[in-house]
């Protein structure tokens, strides 16, 4: 992937600056999450200027608040890709605040017909990114028909590269189907399910951690027993968002020699969506096949 | 009775630690809070809680322990209130209001910065509304030591404090250092609010400071009985609050447990209401008997 593109202008550095202007004539596009911004960049290539809004793997996306710089990027955008399902509802408010009839908004939740999903981390589903790529290619072609062939060629390349991800998922499924894993949050659940794994952690526990409230003591004990009793092959924890509860579970897993897998909620900036998913799949394979922990993929 | 006393409750380490912390903190809060109510300093207590919020949020932002943040924040707030001047009740009101406003603004800034820069899930929720079941055993030790120190200091301060609280002018005439006693008490109250914030969160922490002593005072007994009643009501609210929160997991098929802080504060309010009802009916009966 030789994509030397200016990806993601941080929301913080934007605050107080003039509205972003790409190279002259470039289409202003926004990815509400950096992983969607990455797909926009891979397909839009030289003809788009991408701003990714939630782009910092060190913050909790569920607590994100929009800054004035974000509002300016959205006002200038012709095409926006956002997750939806309540994950980035601040986007809807900012879009409503700067109404623009020529702006196209792709909601991934709507693409998946899952606008009220309990687990909004759609990008971890291996089926999602091809859908997003196809949808945004169609919109880019409508916005700049002159470059249709360019966009379509890059879409083809993206979809071809993505086959490595689906192949890795399929081979993991053949090897590990039915194995049990514990998680701290539902971040990677779509991928883990696609790999045929059983998620032993109660969803209520995962949702409580995701929503920033303390899980009940009973659910914490259930989770602890999964680790101390070696009832799971790995603890897939959210590397990006920690609390005293999740930290104590990570420590407990380490003490009991349960392999740890760092699941990133936001794409690390050194990777692309394909290499990111391949790294996560490899981390889960290492944990289940060799008991090896992966605490950082970036 | 399964729904009320679920058999496994005391085998759960988090619940044991939480209940222990709750009982210790409820005891100190009741003892210290009795003077808060007698001295009409409830508003100051609440302002200290708001400063504790800023302290807790600052601790979350810079990675310190929340207990240290709550206690240090609250102590700084007490110092600020004293510096502005709290000698007369009217000045006290203004000083308290100024500190409260400033501290809440600071808390808003810190909580905002936490969402931008740190990766702590739910810090806002646990700072404002408490996270009793996540208190670690080592924090329990620190809390117990701090609580014991507050109790000892209160015992040492007790006699002049009572004198100053009941009739400040007479105390001043007798040569009691009113200002110094008041300052010492405000500092004790600050530490207590910080401890209470660990149990039910900084915003709710005055509920334990004010509620049980107010109910005990309403019953109108002597000093020692009132102190004992206040402690009993405080410990009761926290103890049954912990049990109710734990058991509420079994009350609904969804297993959505109620937060501890809600259960504790609901029981404090319930105690106040019940005590008021009891006091009114007995008074009416007494009045009727006299006729």
Class based on secondary structure composition and strand pairing of chain A:
alpha/beta
Based on the coordinates given, report the CATH architecture of chain B. Orthogonal Bundle
| Named CATH topology of the largest domain in chain A | Rossmann fold
Q: Calculate the mean pLDDT score of chain B and round it.
A: 87
Distance between the termini of chain B: 46 Å
Proportion in helices of chain A: 40-55%
Give an account of the 3D structure.
The complex is a heterodimer of chains A (298) and B (291). With 298 residues, chain A is of the alpha/beta class. Chain A folds into two domains: 11-164, Nitrogenase molybdenum iron protein domain (Rossmann fold), CATH 3.40.50; 177-290, Rossmann fold, CATH 3.40.50. Chain A is built from twelve helices and eight strands. Chain A has helices at 11-14, 34-44, 68-76, 90-97, 108-111, 128-143, 148-176, 189-194, 203-210, 217-228, 244-255, 273-290, and strands at residues 27-33, 48-54, 79-82, 104-107, 180-183, 198-199, 234-238, 259-263. In chain A, the strands form two sheets. Chain A has a four-stranded parallel beta sheet, with helices on both faces. A four-stranded parallel beta sheet of chain A has the order 6-5-7-8, with helices on both faces. In chain A, strand 1 (27-33), helix 2 (34-44) and strand 2 (48-54) form a beta-alpha-beta unit. In chain A, helix 2 packs across helix 6. The two termini of chain A are 17 Å apart. The model of chain A is unreliable at 1-22 (pLDDT under 50). Chain B has helices at 13-38, 42-62, 66-84, 89-117, 123-129, 137-166, 168-173, 178-200, 205-218, 223-247, 260-290. Chain B has one domain (7-290): ABC transporter involved in vitamin B12 uptake, BtuC, CATH 1.10.3470. Chain B has 291 residues and is mainly α. Chain B has eleven helices and no strands. Chain B is 79% helix and 0% strand.
Helix and strand arrangement:
The complex is a heterodimer of chains A (298) and B (291).
Chain A (H helix, E strand, L loop, with lengths): L10 H4 L12 E7 H11 L3 E7 L13 H9 L2 E4 L7 H8 L6 E4 H4 L16 H16 L4 H29 L3 E4 L5 H6 L3 E2 L3 H8 L6 H12 L5 E5 L5 H12 L3 E5 L9 H18 L8
Parallel strand pairs in A: 1-2, 1-3, 3-4, 5-6, 5-7, 7-8
Chain B lengths: L12 H26 L3 H21 L3 H19 L4 H29 L5 H7 L7 H30 L1 H6 L4 H23 L4 H14 L4 H25 L12 H31 L1
Helix pairs in contact in B: 1-6, 1-8, 1-9, 1-10, 2-3, 2-4, 2-5, 2-8, 2-9, 3-4, 3-8, 6-8, 8-9, 9-10, 9-11, 10-11
């Amino acid at each position: 992937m030789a994509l030397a593109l200016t990806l993601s202008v941080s929301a913080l550095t934007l605050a107080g600056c003039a509205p972003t202007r790409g190279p002259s004539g470039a289409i202003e596009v926004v990815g509400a999450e950096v992983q969607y911004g990455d797909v926009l960049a891979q397909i839009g290539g030289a003809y788009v200027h991408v701003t990714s809004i939630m782009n910092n793997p060190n913050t909790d996306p569920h607590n994100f608040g929009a800054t004035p710089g974000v509002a300016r990027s959205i006002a200038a955008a012709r095409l926006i890709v956002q997750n939806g399902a309540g994950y980035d509802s601040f986007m809807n408010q900012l879009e409503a605040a700067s109404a623009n009839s020529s702006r196209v908004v792709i909601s991934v939740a709507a693409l998946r017909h899952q606008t009220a999903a309990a687990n909004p981390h759609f990008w971890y589903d291996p089926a999602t990114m091809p859908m997003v790529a196809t949808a945004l290619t169609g919109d880019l072609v409508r916005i700049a028909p002159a470059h249709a062939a360019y966009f379509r060629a890059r879409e083809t390349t993206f979809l071809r590269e993505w086959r490595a991800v689906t192949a890795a998922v399929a081979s993991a499924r053949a090897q590990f189907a039915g194995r049990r894993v514990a998680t701290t949050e539902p971040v990677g659940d779509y991928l883990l399910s696609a790999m045929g794994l059983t998620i032993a952690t109660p969803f209520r526990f995962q949702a409580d951690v995701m929503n920033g409230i303390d899980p009940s003591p009973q659910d914490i004990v259930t989770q602890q027993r999964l680790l101390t009793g070696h009832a799971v092959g790995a603890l897939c924890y959210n590397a990006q968002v920690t609390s005293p509860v999740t930290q104590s579970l990570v420590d407990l897993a380490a003490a009991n020699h349960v392999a740890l897998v760092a699941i990133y909620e936001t794409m690390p900036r050194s990777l692309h969506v394909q290499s990111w998913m391949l790294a996560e799949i490899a981390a889960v394979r290492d944990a289940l096949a060799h008991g090896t922990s992966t605490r950082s993929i970036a | 009775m399964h729904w009320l006393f679920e058999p496994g409750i005391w085998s759960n380490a988090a619940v044991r630690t939480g209940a222990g912390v709750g009982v210790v903190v409820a005891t100190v809060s009741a003892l210290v809070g009795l003077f808060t109510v007698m001295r009409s300093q409830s508003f100051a207590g609440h302002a200290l809680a708001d400063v504790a919020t800023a302290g807790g949020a600052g601790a979350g932002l810079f990675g310190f322990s929340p207990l240290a943040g709550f206690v240090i924040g609250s102590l700084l707030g007490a110092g600020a209130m004293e510096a502005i001047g709290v000698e007369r009740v009217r000045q006290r009101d203004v000083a308290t209001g100024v500190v409260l406003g400033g501290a809440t603004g600071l808390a808003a800034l810190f909580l905002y910065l936490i969402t931008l820069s740190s990766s702590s899930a739910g810090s806002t929720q646990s700072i404002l509304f408490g996270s009793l079941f996540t208190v670690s055993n080592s924090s329990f030790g620190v809390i117990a030591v701090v609580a014991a120190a507050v109790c000892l200091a209160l015992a040492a301060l007790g006699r002049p404090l009572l004198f100053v609280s009941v009739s400040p002018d007479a105390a001043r005439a007798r040569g009691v250092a009113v200002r110094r006693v008041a300052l010492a008490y405000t500092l004790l109250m600050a530490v207590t609010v910080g401890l209470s914030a660990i149990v039910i969160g900084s915003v709710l922490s005055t509920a334990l400071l004010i509620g049980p002593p107010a109910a005990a005072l309403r019953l109108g007994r002597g000093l020692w009985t009132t102190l004992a009643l206040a402690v009993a009501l405080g410990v009761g609210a926290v103890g049954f609050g912990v049990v109710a929160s734990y058991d509420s997991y079994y009350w609904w098929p969804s297993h959505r447990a109620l937060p501890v802080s809600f259960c504790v504060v609901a029981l404090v309010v319930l105690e106040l209401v019940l005590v008021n009802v009891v006091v009114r009916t007995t008074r009416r009966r007494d009045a009727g008997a006299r006729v």
